[in-house]
Here is the input.
Amino acid sequence: MKDWFKILVIGLLGTMMSGCSDINVVKEIHLGLYNNNELKIRLDVTTTKPVDLYAEYWIEGKHPEKYRSVNTSKATSYKLVLTNILPDTTYSYHIVTVSNGDTTVGKTYNFKSHQLPLFLQEQFNAKVAPKATLPGEFNDGLMLINKRYAPGVAYLVDNKGQIRWYHTIDDLGFKVINFTKDKTLLSILGRNDEPTSYGSEILEINLLGDTLLHLKKGQGDFKQIIHHEILKNDKDQLVFIYVDKRIMDLSSVGDAKQDTVNGDGIMVMDKTGKQLYKWSVFDVMDPLKDPKIMKTKKDWMHANSLSYDRDGNYLMSFYNNGQIWKINAKTGKVIYKFGKGGTIKMPADCNFTQAHAAHINAQGNLMFFDNGVEKHQSGVYAMKIDEQHQSSTIAMHIQLPKEIFNGRMGSAYQINDTTTLVCCSKRHIVVLADNKGRLHWTMETSVPTYRAGFIKYEQLNPYLKP
Here is the structure.
């Protein structure tokens, strides 16, 4: 793949490189790809003296809709990146210089972006349902989707199914990926022979595709396999789920005196790989008291999501026991268990089986994707939890059409009060459902993405805009 990209870059430079002698201080401009990416254009500009300098660019024929590169510091050699590029589109651009308070707009030039590489074409097929009207909020952001096997791809996709941003990795897959408050993408990377959401590397990149952090298992205290979730806390530390392997005497339940039970834990590390906090399900539960331990010992609880409640404590969902736990982030004590056999009383009509992507939504309710394994019908719940009285009520329940039943993986995130973006991973489909379960929009995906997150343009500014 690297050689293929190299050929494209050379071809692009051959057709797009411009030499110029502008009327002021701009001496030369060279144009090519940034990070070998067709949706990011690099301008290398040299000047006769140090000035403040940036590029303005726009789609040809749409001059009022101007975009701007990041302004660089004074120098005589500048590297500018043009983002928000559409494939196979002609752009105009000029260089703007500021010196001694005077602003000068240079000569206008043109370039045409290439089509996306073949392996990125026809990845998503989006359709609006007949007579449906999409909410305005759904036009105001992009979906974050990841390809979990090598070569890995992270995509930002609009509701027309158009790829607006991508990043590729040759030898690993993006097992899990999240957008951070710092406008970066934080991910777990893994090989194809590792389980679907498990990996052994951590990668953080910015929206230019520059690597900000790359940790590999074995560095510092990073000794465990990690899976299903990676976050940043408010101290810019890494928070993730890890596999906790314990050698245990299982002879009392009919197994060997020395056998391995694989549980789950939460770890916090700094960016050097130093462990700062560690919690394990073994701290609060005894596998020997689990009547199913003989069947589940290789993956006892199967934690599949981790997020924060509004008070800073953890929310963690488990597939095998179908529960969502709230865990004190300081003491490790389990505050509540929600689900069958849990500590929170559930309404009679809250009959979810297995959950994914548990989080607190905009209304402050516990929201999650219900795999619906027992009834073979998936859905979405938002629950109002009363911790003081250990009770709950249903704030919202979406029953999805049985045709898109999704027994493993999946996610659900609100777009507004009446519509929810739902990812049915096993069905290779992302849908926009209203609170009655009607589908207003669908997007078939070429990859079984683990989740489909939604990121507003205001969070992506200035790198991506409508």
